[in-house]
What does this fold into?
Amino acid sequence: MLPKWFDDWNAKNPTDVYRPAILVGVVGAAVVVAGLLVAYGQPWPTQSLQTGPRGTGMHVPDFVAVAARPDPTVAAYVSPPPVEPAPGEPTAGEAYENAEPLLASLPQSQYDRLVGAMREWTGIPDLLAGEENYQTVVARRMIQMTWLLNDAWSGHTNAYADDGTNAGVNCFTCHRGQPVPAGIWFDPGSTVKVMAGWGGVQNRVTMLSQFTSLPSDALQKYLVEGESIKVHDLESRVEGRASDPDYIAWQHTERTFSLMNYFSNSLGVNCVFCHNSRAFYDPGQVTPQWNNAMLAIQMVLEVNNDYLIPLGEVLPAERLGPLGDAPKIACMTCHKGYQRPMGGFDMISDWPELTAEIVAVGN
Ligand code: HEC
Ligand code: HEC
Ligand code: HEC
It folds into this structure.
């Protein structure tokens, strides 16, 4: 079929056709993929939130699809519209024999609306129905705690009020329709039973160590016992022993990192959301969010020590931790993995009863 001279020439000059074929194939496929990317965009686009000055690499990156996914528990939020009390309407204290004393000066219709909402928010249908149920006693303390969080700690829970956006917290922020909120924690005690001291709390993957080998007792030490989180300065650390109580050893550094991992996971951010990572020790190089976090540390310490730990005497044994300690809160209990709880949703404007102690007003 082909001329004879061609067959001769071919036989004398054998050529490997595979190599050029592979090259053409690879280049061709790359062109097709590039064409698809240009036409349709890349399937996993990311976005990043710049948290510091330009050029410092302070970015919190996220997949667009993940960032756009709303907190699924928010959909269960119910908030009946405010009611206007009728003139001359009785207060709850006048209308009901067993009205909750803290709320008894509210007009009856407002009381009904509030108690109805609290039952939805906590998933307890007979909440505040009677003293004989411990949940009534707990709820009373919870109302006072919510006042504290919205009033004394509004610098944290309503940090952006000056921008005209109220946030704040109500029972749903923590409870999300459940009697026991997600994101509570207990003192883990020794996680390595045969060891005491530092050896007993680290190198074991636990939820409280954020599934790392870092110490599991960070929340207990920093958010209950109020130990100093600071570990970083520019001094040399060649001398000193971990057993010396005044010496900050690498064990302390690991515990601080354990807490910091917890912060990051609770808010769904990374370290540069709060720090310039070249100078963790320098409060002059932090982001504004570091200050929000500073306030939160004090807020959580107060709530745990003054409100939740004393409730351990009221709660039934099955609500207590392995060491018999009361359930405690921290960042996760409100934030649930998001930068702002409920996506920064306004939890208080429709619920002034929960923003500060109710003082009786006539109507
Ligand atoms: C800052 C988070 C937070 C807020 C806000 C909060 N709670 Fe709680 N609540 C907790 C924690 C933590 C517990 C202890 C969990 C347990 O009982 O095991 C708890 C427990 C309770 C319980 C006992 C549940 C049970 O079955 O043991 C009741 C009742 C309750 N809360 C009512 C309320 C009410 C009502 C509000 C709003 C006025 C409220 N809480 C607001 C964190 C919160
Ligand atoms: C939500 C804000 C926030 C995030 C996120 C955060 N930190 Fe922190 N970090 C703080 C605050 C506030 C302090 C100061 C605590 C204090 O001084 O009492 C601190 C303290 C520290 C310290 C000790 C500084 C010193 O003065 O000795 C180190 C180290 C540190 N963080 C590392 C990290 C690392 C690593 C990450 C990421 C895994 C991280 N942080 C994420 C807020 C944050
Ligand atoms: C009682 C509930 C509650 C707890 C507990 C809590 N926060 Fe918050 N936090 C809030 C609310 C509500 C906001 C939103 C404030 C606003 O938008 O005005 C917020 C906002 C923040 C912000 C600012 C976010 C931004 O977009 O600028 C940071 C940072 C923060 N919290 C860190 C923490 C850390 C760290 C902890 C634990 C030590 C913590 N929070 C514990 C309720 C809580």
Remarks:
- The chain has a mean pLDDT of 92.
